[in-house]
Amino acid sequence: QSFVLREYPSELRKKAALLRHFAGYIERKDEAEELHDGGELAKGVYVRKWLRTKHAVLFRLSNRSVQVSFFDKTEVILWSESKYVTYRNKRGERLTYTTAGSAHVDELTRRLRYIKDVISRLISAGPPPTSSAVDPAANPLQRVVM
């Protein structure tokens, strides 16, 4: 079932308010911060699927890239058409590595291992993962359904 943002059932009021807030944020973003995917501008990119875990929110984007925003303010973007990984560390520095070069950054390697575990479990439809790579006491995944 789908609704327009101006006409929706009262039980969706909170979700509609969140969507309006998010749309306003996106509109205010500086256009200079456009994503690039293999050298092409990624205009019109949107979230196809998302998943919240204990440590991060994973986004599957329409351009087939995966963005993972960790709750410790770090971020990983896996570009679909190129063999690059963009990593924003805890200091807010945004660095891009080749997939081979990313193996030399311990902090990034742990996060990539966690992402691989989560995605592998989703693909195999097995039990929700816990990750000793990031936190040995990690809770199971919480699937978010909209």
In short:
The chain has 146 residues and is an alpha+beta fold. Helix content is 24%, strand content 24%. It has helices at 13-28, 106-124, and strands at 36-37, 40-41, 47-52, 56-61, 66-70, 75-78, 84-88, 94-98.
What would you note in describing this structure?
It is a single chain. By secondary structure, the chain is an alpha+beta fold. Mean pLDDT is 75; it is low at 30-42 and 129-146. Strand 4 (56-61) and strand 5 (66-70) form a beta hairpin. The protein is elongated, with a radius of gyration of 17 Å. Strands 3-4-5-6-7-8 form a 6-stranded antiparallel β-sheet, with helices on one face. It has helices at residues 13-28, 106-124; strands at 36-37, 40-41, 47-52, 56-61, 66-70, 75-78, 84-88, 94-98.
How is the topology of this model organized?
Blueprint (H helix, E strand, L loop, with lengths): L12 H16 L7 E2 L2 E2 L5 E6 L3 E6 L4 E5 L4 E4 L5 E5 L5 E5 L7 H19 L22
Antiparallel strand pairs: 1-2, 3-4, 4-5, 5-6, 6-7, 7-8
Helix coverage percent: 10-25%
Which structural class should the secondary elements be placed in? alpha+beta
Beta-strand percentage range: 15-25%
Overall pLDDT confidence: 75
**How many beta strands in the DSSP annotation?**
8
Rg (C-alpha, Å): 17 Å
Largest sheet: 6 strands, antiparallel
- State the end-to-end CA separation: 11 Å
Number of helices: 2
Q: Spatial order of the strands in the main sheet? A: 3-4-5-6-7-8
Order of helices and strands: HEEEEEEEEH
Give the overall form: elongated
Spans where pLDDT lies below 50 across 5 or more residues:
30-42, 129-146
